[in-house]
Amino acid sequence: MPFYHTLGQIPPKRHTQFPRPVNASGETSRESEGPFYYEQLFGTIGFDGMSSLLYHVHRPTMVREVQESVDMTPKLAVQKNMMARKLIGFDVPPADDFIESRVPLLVNNDLIFGLAAPRQSLTAYFYKNADADELLFVHRGSGKLRTLFGTIPFQYGDYLIIPRGIIYQIAFDTADNKLLYVESRTPIYTPKRYRNHFGQMLEHAPFCERDIIRPNALETHDETGDFLMKIKKQGSLHSLVYASHPFDVVGWDGYNYPYGFSIFNFEPITGRVHQPPPVHQTFQTDSFVVCSFVPRLYDYHPQAIPAPYNHSNIDSDEVIYYVDGDFMSRNDIKQGHITLHPGGIPHGPAPGAMERSIGKKETQEYAVMVDTFRPLMLTEQAMAIDDGVYYKSWIA
After folding, report:
1. Residue 289 contacts residue 194 (beta carbons within 8 Å)
2. How far apart (Å, rounded) are the C-alpha atoms in residues 385 and 382?
3. Strand-by-strand arrangement of the 150-154 sheet
4. CATH top-level class of 264-388
5. What residues does each domain of the chain span?
6. pLDDT digits (tens, 9 = 90+) for 319-339
């Protein structure tokens, strides 16, 4: 994320001595640990990408034990798909554990797209995804994302972007939580066309830096002991025991950190005639884009057709997760439904949707769209919630 941020205490110059506070007897608080805080560079793309510098009470390298590993590879049911699908997302069963609640539905070599309905907070262990950046969209629930960079409050409609390698826990306020998640093997950024060459959001962008929810309330735990860490790497979940509390950062600064953004702060771009989906783009990677459909005024040409025109998916698979509202271009769509329109065949508004849209002034829909540049495969869990007949929905 190309926005500088800092929390807590940091030395005036990087890569220099950062002494611990001295107590009344003239000693540092933990003489056995040495007189200094421990600096850690947390970066991406080697030393060329975005990074932050963190300062730890204890060495962040102390691993006491390496335990079992569990294979998390999704079980594929359809590897070569040429059928439009509708998945009934709210049929994904809830689970107590945060990681075990994740149900992968659509996958390729670039991402995992799935849903989760965790009933309990993630407090028994710490989690780190070393394979992928994570995008969480909160459909139901509220709470706090707790990380070594600080705390981010979240609620309905929030995106949470968690760059790979960030250690976190999550605290929910209730047991009724529904999340859309995407694990991306390439970094998740804001759209390039909405940034100038310095990284600042441009005036025509649909959101700006003021809308970004940055970490706050930095936690600093000066604790040693046994702290269970679960790390996803190469598709497996590895359990390790750390010798000190992972949230022991006294301060940090930089550009690489988790953040939040509310879909309700996305300002739609409209025109006299129907605007193509890229105007809804919210995030981008090298392998897919994420768009936010929000309430907006319809096109205002006197002969405008507000419903989207038929278009061919040649270069991408299109996935739409329906959040709330009227979903004017579809028939028989409800909250939590997911449609998959595979590349290679055209799709468009459902029968009657084009005609119904003429003369309408606005829509109140909310939806999240993920367009991938490579074909998606369906998991066994996806087939279990597939309605099986959606591909026929364009037959009048």
Report:
1. no
2. 5
3. 63-71, 236-244, 224-233, 122-129, 168-172, 143-147, 150-154
4. mainly beta
5. 264-388
6. 999 999 988 888 889 999 999
